Amino acid sequence: MAPKFMFSFLPGLVTLVFIAVFALFIIYAIKGIAQWNRNNHSPVLTVPARVVSKRTHVSHYTHHDANNAGMYDSSSTTYYVTFEFESGDRLELRVPHDEFGYLVEGDMGKLTFQGTRYKGFQRDII
After folding, report:
1. CA separation for the pair 62, 65 (Å, rounded)
2. How many Cβ atoms from other residues are within 10 Å of residue 25's Cβ?
3. Containing H/E element for 4?
4. Phi and psi of 116, rounded to 5°?
5. Where do the domains of the chain lie?
6. Strand 71-85 to strand 108-114: parallel, antiparallel, or no bridges (unpaired)?
7. Nearest to 121, CA basis, from 78, 41, 108
8. Does the domain made of 44-126 have the CATH classification 3.30.450.40?
9. Spatial CA neighbour of 113 closest among 87, 68, 83, 73
10. What pLDDT, in 10s, does the model give residues 104-121?
11. pLDDT tens for each residue of 32-76
C-alpha cells in the first residue's frame, strides 16, 4: 500500500511539470519571434562566397491514428549549406530542398542572405 504523502505530492509534481513544459514553449516562441524580427531588420547582403560543406538533418515522427487503429511513421529533412566568405568567416544557412542539390562543395559565387535567411546563390560562370 502506498504512503499517503505520495497522493498529496503527486498533484504538485504534475503541476510543476506542466508549468515547466509551458515555460519552455513560451521561451522557444519568444526566441523564434526575436530571430524573425532580427532577420527582418537585417540588410539584404550579396557577397562573394564559396560553398564549403552541406548537410541534412532528418527528423522522424511516429503518429497515432485518431481512432487508435494503428501508428504510422513520417519524417522530414532540413537542408543546410555552409558558406565561406573571402575573410575566412563561415555561415551555415538553411536552404530550400530544391536548391540544395544544385549547390556543390567548392562552388564560388555570390551569396544573398538576410540575417540567417538564405535568399539565393548565383554561381560564378567560368
Report:
1. 10
2. 10
3. helix 4-41
4. -105, 15
5. 1-41, 44-126
6. unpaired
7. 108
8. no
9. 83
10. 999 999 999 999 999 999
11. 899 889 889 999 999 999 999 999 999 988 877 766 667 778 899
- Cα 11–14–16 angle (5° rounding)? 110
Enter the pTM of the model. Answer: 0.74
**What's the rounded Cα separation, in Å, for the pair 119 and 43?**
12
Residue type, 46: T
The residue to which cell 563561415 is assigned: 90
Where residue 18 falls (left for φ over 0; alpha for ψ -120 to 50; beta otherwise) is: alpha
Cell representation of residue 97: 530542398
Residues composing the chain? 126
Using a 10 angstrom Cβ sphere, with 0-12 exposed, 13-18 middle and 19 or more buried, the burial of residue 52 is middle
